[in-house]
Amino acid sequence: MPQKLAFRMKLIPGFEEEYERRHREIWPELVTLLKDTGIIDYQIFLDRETSNLFAFQVIEGEANSQDLGSTEIVQCWWKHMADIMETNPDNSPISVELPNVFDLQ
């Protein structure tokens, strides 16, 4: 059975359009890695009032995007995004996992 993962990240205010532009141009090799990992659905929603991002994944497998930080392509993506997001010292986005409190299934 697929598992679900939700987490929150934060943009630096004023970079909402740039964030969307960079994701419209997401690197094909990053998309391949995510799909090969078993991520069958990955959506990111933006709250424009707070610059908060809400990410949601459906995963068939053991790993999720949060487990891919050791790969070169993910590290490059983090560096590419670090100037517009709140990040940790290693450039990874500060990410807070959100518990599932309701599911209509």
TrEMBL record:
GO terms for biological process: rhamnose catabolic process. It is an enzyme of class 5 (isomerase). InterPro entries: Dimeric_a/b-barrel, L-rhamnose_mutarotase, Rham/fucose_mutarotase. One of its GO terms (cellular component) is cytoplasm. It comes from the Bacteria. Keywords: Carbohydrate metabolism, Cytoplasm, Isomerase, Rhamnose metabolism. GO terms for molecular function: L-rhamnose mutarotase activity. The keyword Isomerase applies. Its EC number is 5.1.3.32. NCBIfam families: YiiL_rotase. This is L-rhamnose mutarotase.
